[in-house]
Design brief:
Helix content: 55-70%
Radius of gyration: 36 Å
Strand order of the largest sheet: 3-2-1-6
Distance between the termini: 22 Å
Oligomer: single chain
Order of helices and strands: HHHEEEHHHHEEE
Shape: rod-shaped
Strand content: 5-15%
Structural class: alpha+beta
Length: about 240
């Protein structure tokens, strides 16, 4: 049996390029919308010097106001105009900061959403096709498993269980829980319980760590037993 050849780089490129275009297009659209909103908001805000210009006009039009009370009133108006200008400038700064913050949040949301969608698609593909294992090396002496050149340290019991499953896979056999327990313990299968083998499988999956990997690597065939869901040609034992 031959391994399934990996997808060609050109195919992967054709798949990834449209996705990247969607991401960049979404980010560009967000920036454009928020930039347009910023322009509209800043354009609709009153001029910071509008109040001062109006006070100055009052000074010009009422040059005959010479009493102390009238001059004091004009000074208060001028000071109010200056305060209004400072407050309006601070409002512009706050609005600008909020728009930048909103842009960053929306861009991050788009990136995270696309990442989640890509991961979900990848997981769905893995669930449909199973794990693509190019090599599985079991070293009983080192109590280690090399899965696609990734080293996994296992307990002696887990190594024995995996070795039994590997040998059965090379013989294209499916082992029940009782048969697994019999091969490891050296007893007759009729004297072993199905639950004992199932417990060994559970401990092996726990030792492998990643639940998704272990569930896809070790298949449970209903009413038949357990087997490794990989090509028998990639299995080596030392």
């Amino acid at each position: 049996m031959t391994d399934t050849p990996p997808p060609e780089p050109q195919t992967a490129l054709r798949v990834s390029v449209p996705g990247n275009r969607v991401v960049f297009g979404g980010i560009a659209a967000i920036v454009l919308i928020l930039a347009t909103t910023a322009v509209v908001i800043f354009a609709s805000l009153p001029d910071a010097n509008a109040f001062n210009a109006r006070v100055e006009q009052l000074f010009v039009e009422n040059a005959d106001l010479t009493s102390n009370a009238e001059l004091r009133l004009l000074e208060i108006l001028a000071q109010s105009g200056t305060s209004f200008s400072e407050v309006l400038a601070s409002y512009r700064a706050v609005i600008f900061i909020l728009l930048i913050f909103a842009t960053a949040l929306l861009i991050a949301a788009v990136v995270f959403l696309v990442t989640i969608i890509a991961l979900n698609r990848r997981m769905s593909e893995v669930e449909r096709q199973g794990i693509q294992v190019s090599s599985l090396l079991i070293s009983r002496d080192e109590r280690a498993v090399y899965l696609n050149n990734m080293e996994l340290k296992l307990t002696e019991a887990a190594i024995e269980t995996l070795a039994v499953l590997a040998e059965a896979r090379m013989d294209e056999d499916v082992l029940s829980g009782a048969e697994i327990e019999a091969m490891i313990s050296g007893r007759d299968a009729s004297d072993c319980e199905e639950a004992a083998g199932a417990t060994r499988i559970k401990r092996l999956r726990d030792a492998l760590g990643n639940q998704i990997v272990s569930e896809l690597l070790i298949k449970n065939i209903a009413r038949r037993g357990y087997m490794l869901a990989i090509d028998k040609g990639v299995i080596r034992m030392i």
